[in-house]
What does this fold into?
Amino acid sequence: MSGNRELFRPEERDLAPIGRRAIAYAIDDLLISMIFVILLWEPISAAQSMEQVALIINGVWLYMAAAQIIYHTWFVWEYGASLGKMATGIRVADAATLARPGFQASFNRAIFRVVSGIVFYLGFVWALFDPMRQTWHDKTASTLVVNA
It folds into this structure.
């Protein structure tokens, strides 16, 4: 194998555990969801049925996806970690250098994070079977999630 293969051996990286990544995911999604619940409290509380609530939420889905993309792009680009990752002591790193990802990688990762969720969360499940614990969005952005 080539010398580059040696750079990506899992035992040489301090990869973040899947459990902490899951907790970070939950924190981040809860934060964004709470913002939308606050913004939509009036129409949701006035809804007469669960179907009406579902219609309200479906009506803002694109805005929620955009908010997630903006949130994750900015935090990963600026700090190398979202608030959830900061709370759990993990961070996103460039796979080759372990440096904080640049804007393009952060934006790519944020977009494909949404895609990973849309496709029945298969993009996230992928990390369970990947030796580097990379999700689809990590693979497309050439990033790893490591302990901070």
The chain has one domain: 16-147. The beta strands are 90-94, 143-147. The CA atoms of residues 44 and 53 lie 6 Å apart. DSSP finds nine helices and two strands in the chain.
